[in-house]
């Protein structure tokens, strides 16, 4: 039955989309930014939830503020003018009515852009989302591999382990390059100092290497289904990602080295990426991402043929804006600015003589406007993500496309390989919106499975290979 629904909805949408294209004529304290996987729900909860993705009729919306923030700092790149629809919306407009024609949007390279998808969903939904990612013009799919869920006891693999292996195969067969990020050691592998309820690495880096080896071997390395591997996520955050071991880049490098060697032993062609770091300053429970990266170089990072992961979130700032902006919340430190983070990392790479690239393994702009059931606005935003109130759905859409455009043009295109947007479907997962998890604010779908405005901007914009 669901396939019949998807079929006629896609036909309807395709006809509407063709008509649209034809019309176009060709704070003082820096808060820790959490970008981890949502609080884990059980496999049964997640796999048994089916989202009714709406394809034909879009929710009625109220037109919101559509201008970008007032520029109080000179951008370093030439900005594309903010564009707004040139027609008057009907009394009940669809979200497509708010999307400029394709010739007013940037043309982007499919091979240099991807999106992170949460794979612990029913198979029907997973395959539908792969089709959506294709239609949106992404060349890469990123998945996090939650070790704690897949190997709950030493050498004993949960059925979910093999589900994730099949997810990799599905993405590969559908023409995507696949990036895997290995995270979250199971409790049995954690150090004695690890606190219950906090995530972190194993006591022994070799245990991480063993799990990576086991998983990659199941994906049939001879078929090269996995193109890239990221070793962990945001290890400069103690409470969320790096509990139980010293919080510094030198310690992380022990785990990176073990993971790197495991990957290269299976297939030397797989690209290995350092963990994307959370863009924060030095805090209790967090180390500045810039300082952490330098610690990694001090521990020998430059000797590895690896890409450098980076998470250049823009918080409440447009991608063209540069630090610092007086009297603006989240405007007083370079960690809050998309381009400042990228250029700071490039400077560190150059100072350490490393001939490599940055890979953006997460980025995006979040808002809780339009993320609830049937596009409902949710207020207030999650604690710690109050900057969501600075972003409207249209700004989220415009900033996302502009950021892709910036990194695909010189000078940044000389330094940046692939950019992964965070995220496709996290708002549809059980309890994510209800529990005010901030990951939902970045989702391209709302809690009911309706596409948000940023989805349509990506859909209408053109691609090259």
List the helices and strands and how they pair.
Elements: H1 2-23, H2 43-48, E1 108-109, E2 113-116, H3 123-135, E3 140-146, H4 147-150, H5 159-173, E4 177-183, H6 205-218, E5 228-231, H7 238-241, H8 249-266, E6 271-274, H9 289-298, E7 308-310, H10 338-351, E8 358-360, H11 393-407, E9 416-421, H12 453-460, E10 463-464
Parallel strand pairs: 1-10, 2-3, 2-9, 3-4, 4-5, 5-6, 7-8, 8-9
Commentary on this structure:
- This protein is an alpha/beta fold and 465 residues long.
- It has one domain (2-36, 93-464): Glycosidases (TIM Barrel).
- It is 31% helix and 9% strand.
- It has twelve helices and ten strands.
- The chain has helices at residues 2-23, 43-48, 123-135, 147-150, 159-173, 205-218, 238-241, 249-266, 289-298, 338-351, 393-407, 453-460; strands at 108-109, 113-116, 140-146, 177-183, 228-231, 271-274, 308-310, 358-360, 416-421, 463-464.
- The strands form two sheets. Strands 6-5-4-3-2-9-8-7 form an eight-stranded parallel sheet. The chain has a two-stranded parallel ribbon with strand order 1-10.
- Strand 7, helix 10 (338-351) and strand 8 form a beta-alpha-beta unit.
- Helix 6 (205-218) runs parallel beside helix 8 (249-266).
- Residues 1-44 and 55-92 have low confidence and may be disordered.
């Amino acid at each position: 039955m669901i396939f019949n629904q998807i079929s006629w909805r896609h036909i309807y949408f395709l006809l509407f989309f063709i008509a649209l294209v034809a019309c176009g004529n060709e704070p003082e304290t820096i808060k820790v930014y959490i970008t981890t996987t949502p609080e884990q729900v059980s496999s049964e909860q997640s796999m048994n939830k089916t989202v009714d993705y709406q394809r034909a009729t879009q929710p009625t919306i109220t037109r919101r503020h559509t201008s970008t923030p007032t520029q109080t700092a000179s951008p370093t790149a030439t900005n594309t003018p903010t564009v707004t629809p040139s027609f008057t919306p009907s009394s009940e407009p669809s979200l497509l009515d708010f999307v400029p024609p394709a010739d007013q949007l940037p043309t982007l390279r499919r091979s240099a852009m991807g999106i992170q998808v949460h794979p612990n969903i029913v198979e029907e939904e997973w395959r539908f989302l792969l089709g959506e990612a294709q239609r949106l013009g992404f060349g890469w799919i990123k998945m996090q591999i939650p070790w704690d869920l897949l190997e709950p006891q030493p050498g004993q693999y949960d059925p979910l382990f093999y589900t994730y292996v099949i997810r990799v195969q599905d993405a590969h067969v559908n023409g995507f390059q696949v990036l895997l990020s290995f995270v979250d050691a199971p409790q049995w592998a954690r150090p004695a100092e690890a606190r219950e309820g906090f995530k972190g690495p194993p006591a022994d880096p070799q245990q991480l290497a063993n799990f990576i080896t086991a998983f990659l071997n199941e994906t049939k390395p001879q078929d090269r289904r996995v193109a890239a591997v990221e070793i962990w996520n945001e290890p400069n955050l103690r409470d969320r990602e790096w509990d139980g071991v010293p919080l510094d880049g030198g310690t992380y490098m022990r785990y990176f080295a073990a993971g790197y060697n495991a990957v290269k032993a299976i297939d030397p062609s797989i690209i290995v990426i350092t963990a994307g770091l959370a863009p924060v300053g030095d805090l209790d429970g967090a180390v500045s991402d810039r300082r952490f990266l330098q610690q990694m170089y001090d521990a020998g990072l430059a000797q590895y043929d690896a890409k450098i992961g980076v998470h250049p979130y823009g918080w409440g700032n447009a991608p063209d804006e540069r630090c610092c902006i007086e009297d603006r919340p989240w405007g007083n430190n370079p960690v809050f600015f998309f381009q400042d983070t990228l250029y700071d990392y490039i400077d560190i790479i150059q100072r350490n003589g490393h001939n490599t690239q940055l890979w953006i393994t997460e980025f995006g702009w979040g808002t809780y406007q339009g993320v609830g059931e049937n596009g409902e606005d949710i207020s207030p935003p999650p604690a710690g993500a109050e900057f969501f109130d600075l972003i409207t759905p249209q700004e989220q859409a415009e900033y996302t496309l502009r950021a892709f455009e910036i990194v695909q043009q010189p000078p940044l295109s000389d330094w940046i390989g692939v950019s992964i947007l965070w995220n496709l479907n996290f708002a549809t997962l059980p309890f994510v919106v209800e529990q005010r998890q901030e990951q939902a604010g970045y989702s391209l779908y709302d809690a009911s499975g309706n596409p948000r405005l940023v989805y349509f901007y990506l859909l209408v914009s053109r691609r090259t290979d």
